[in-house]
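> Could you send the DNA-formamidopyrimidine glycosylase family protein prediction when you get a chance?

Sure thing. Input:
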Amino acid sequence: MPEGDTVWLTARKLHTALAGRTLTLSDLRVPRFATADLTGREVLDVTARGKHLLTRVEGGLTLHSHLRMDGAWRVYAAGERWRGGPDHQIRAVLGNSEHTAVGYRLPVLELLRSKDEDKAVGHLGPDLLGPDWDVGTAVRNLLADPARPLGEALLDQRNLAGIGNVYKSELAFMARVTPWLPIGELPSGVPERLVATAHRLLEANKNRFDRRTTPAARGGDQRRAGQRPGEQHLFVYGREGRPCLRCGTPVRKAGQDDRVTYWCPGCQSGPTP
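Output:
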């Protein structure tokens, strides 16, 4: 599932291509909204809210989409060949005289009244990349259930919006605890630092798809660290069986709440599966 920074960047690309222009092409390929026609309406803006995308159009309408695991929006120049997947995977097409935005494999796609957006995103906690971001509220939300494992609490978008599986694993590593540690057992001050780190990382990565949480290494340094050329620079995520960048212990992988998680048994203290 894309992280909040990826969704933010997707929203920016869609906004650049569509906002301020009148739609000349509109095709929503889901049964409930197959007859809806947005042509002739101006796109006002495209905004990310956590992992949700809100495309607001003239007339008080919002197209709400969520990428979940496999969804994607691709932007093409007018006349450019679409390459995001076969036609049967297309769920939405929005176009103007210059660009066409195509939504592939979108598991959530609905047309709402803009005044009813809260029905789709009102349950979300503070958005790590949004104007409503508030460290104190996010920390209080996380600590409201002290017995809950850290990894599960971080993934719950009602606590704070934007963290996915990658950042869950990376943040637990940086806090030197396992994702299964009850969040109420974190040492004093750690929840606040953890949330502040989450905000810093998403801000640092929101303008690029090559996400990194650790300083980039090059050449021999990269090989000695066990990193493959061109891969994302992450501490533990996706590094099962490879040496921890901090202590050299092989990184492990296990399931947590129907998701995969990575951790270093040498650096991170706390319960494990």
